[in-house]
């Protein structure tokens, strides 16, 4: 028998002698301590005696997590397992429970202090912070409202002055041409009377008088329309109002996004390649250029590409990732834009058919009809957004990350517009 079994045997014998000395036999019930343990719920064995040996369960097998008797511990199936006397196991469990209870008590104290101090302070701080936030919101809204009301009043007065000016011009023109009409009518009546009532002898001697009348009629001139008879749309232009409006359109609850926008592969010009998803245009070196099949819609000289769908109503917004490209154009054009040849008729921004924001090596400008408006852009944008509001005939370029307006125009568009791009360095991508 091994040393371990001898030890277990001696322990078992000592426990038996202890039970006999207390008047308990093998068939006696568990001692009071064990009974109290069962009642307290620490141990709840189904039987107080070992079913195999009818001996008291006075050992704990940690391997199988059950109570066993001395015979099972010495010669039974649990002899090679991790065994602990029952009283030792009870002491260990009790100590563990004491530790757990102490930890729970400490945790309860921490929770109580957290509720009484931290959460109470947080609630007080919350009230202060919320009050400050409300005051800040009200102050900013009040300042914005005051500025907007002042701008509204200024613009309405400007529109009123422009309306009065045009109305006065119209009244002046009406008076002038009514007088001219009266003079012409009077001259005509006189010439008709001369023609019908003057004797021939007298008529031939009235050449000078007739010439004077004709000269007077010719001096009236032809009526012509002028810009002075139209309301100047710039009277309602306002950087503040335009910025607030654009921010509301771009960031508001009903922010507009043109999710269907893709490049039309039929329009892609030379030196450009289009990705399979039709979102990315990449500039290609001339030596690796692949010949493009002929298409009436394709640009055959300039590296241009157009969007797949025309825009002629509502509000539309799209964003292009220009990355590190040092040469590109983004904007809109009429579908009637020339596609063939290397002239300005097919060059974005150099004709009356296109409106684009251009970047060439950090030199930003707005281009239309061959005229450039320099743009002061401090930080090179990684993305450029285009906003087209058809109802107000407004075209606006902005920087999406900050919503800073780069440039905007109000233009009377006479036909549907197509998104337009050109790339001569790296690539640009429609962002969805």
Protein architecture, described:
The chain has 432 residues and is α+β, with helices and mostly antiparallel strands. It has helices at 3-21, 32-40, 70-74, 86-197, 200-204, 207-219, 239-251, and strands at 59-61, 66-68, 83-85, 272-274, 280-283, 304-306, 315-321, 327-334, 354-360, 363-368, 371-374, 383-389, 394-399, 404-410, 417-423, 427-431. The strands form 3 sheets. It has a 7-stranded antiparallel beta sheet with strand order 4-5-16-7-12-13-14, with helices on one face. A 6-stranded antiparallel beta sheet has the order 6-15-8-9-10-11, with no helix packed on it. α4 (86-197) packs antiparallel against α6 (207-219). The chain is elongated and about 165 Å long.
Characterize this entry briefly.
41% of the residues lie in helices and 19% in strands.
Report the span from N to C terminus.
80 Å
Uncertain regions: pLDDT < 50 for 5+ in a row? 1-47
Tell how many strands the DSSP assignment holds: 16
Specify the biggest β-sheet.
Answer: 7 strands, antiparallel
Tell me, briefly, the overall form: elongated
- Lateral strand order in the biggest sheet: 4-5-16-7-12-13-14
**Rg measurement, Å:** 49 Å
**Amount of beta strand:** 15-25%
Helix percentage range: 40-55%
Task: Report the total helices.
Answer: 7
* Helix and strand sequence: HHEEHEHHHHEEEEEEEEEEEEE
Return the average pLDDT rounded to an integer. Answer: 84
User: Which secondary-structure class do the elements indicate?
Assistant: alpha+beta
């Amino acid at each position: 028998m091994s040393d371990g079994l001898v030890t277990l045997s001696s322990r078992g014998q000592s426990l038996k002698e202890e039970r006999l000395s207390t008047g308990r036999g093998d068939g006696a019930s568990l001692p009071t301590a064990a009974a109290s343990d069962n009642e307290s719920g620490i141990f709840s064995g189904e039987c107080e005696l070992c079913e195999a040996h009818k001996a008291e369960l006075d050992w704990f097998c940690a391997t199988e997590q059950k109570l066993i008797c001395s015979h099972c511990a010495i010669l039974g199936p649990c002899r090679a397992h991790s065994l602990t006397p029952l009283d030792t196991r009870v002491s260990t469990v009790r100590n563990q429970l004491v530790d757990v209870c102490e930890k729970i008590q400490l945790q309860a104290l921490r929770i109580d202090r957290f509720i009484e101090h931290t959460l109470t302070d947080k609630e007080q701080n919350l009230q202060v912070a919320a009050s400050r936030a409300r005051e800040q919101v009200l102050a900013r809204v009040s300042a914005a409202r005051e500025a907007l009301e002042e701008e509204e009043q200024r613009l309405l007065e400007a529109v009123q002055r422009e309306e009065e000016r045009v109305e006065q011009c119209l009244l002046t023109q009406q008076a002038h041409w009514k007088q001219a009409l009266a003079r012409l009518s009077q001259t005509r009546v006189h010439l008709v009377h001369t023609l019908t009532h003057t004797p021939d002898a007298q008529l031939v001697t009235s050449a000078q008088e007739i010439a004077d009348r004709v000269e007077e009629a010719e001096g009236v001139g032809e009526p012509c329309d002028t810009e002075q008879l139209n309301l100047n749309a710039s009277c309602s232009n306002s950087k503040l109002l335009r910025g607030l409006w654009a921010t509301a359109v771009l960031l508001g609850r009903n922010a507009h996004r043109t999710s269907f926008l893709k490049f039309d592969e039929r329009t892609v010009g030379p030196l450009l390649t289009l990705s399979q998803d039709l979102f990315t245009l990449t500039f290609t070196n001339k030596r690796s250029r692949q010949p493009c099949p002929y298409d009436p819609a394709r640009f055959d000289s300039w590296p241009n590409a157009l969007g797949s769908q025309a825009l002629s109503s509502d509000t539309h917004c799209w964003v292009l990732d220009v990355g590190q490209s040092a040469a590109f154009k983004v904007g809109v054009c009429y579908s009637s834009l020339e596609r063939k040849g290397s002239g300005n008729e097919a060059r974005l921004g150099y004709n009356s058919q296109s409106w684009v924001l251009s970047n060439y090596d950090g030199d930003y400008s707005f281009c239309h009809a061959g005229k450039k408006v320099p743009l002061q852009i401090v930080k090179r944008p990684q993305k450029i957004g285009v906003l087209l509001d058809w109802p107000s005939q407004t075209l606006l370029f902005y920087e999406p990350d900050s919503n800073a307006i780069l440039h905007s125009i109000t233009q009377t568009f006479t036909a549907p517009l197509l998104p337009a791009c050109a790339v001569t360095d790296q690539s640009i991508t429609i962002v969805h």
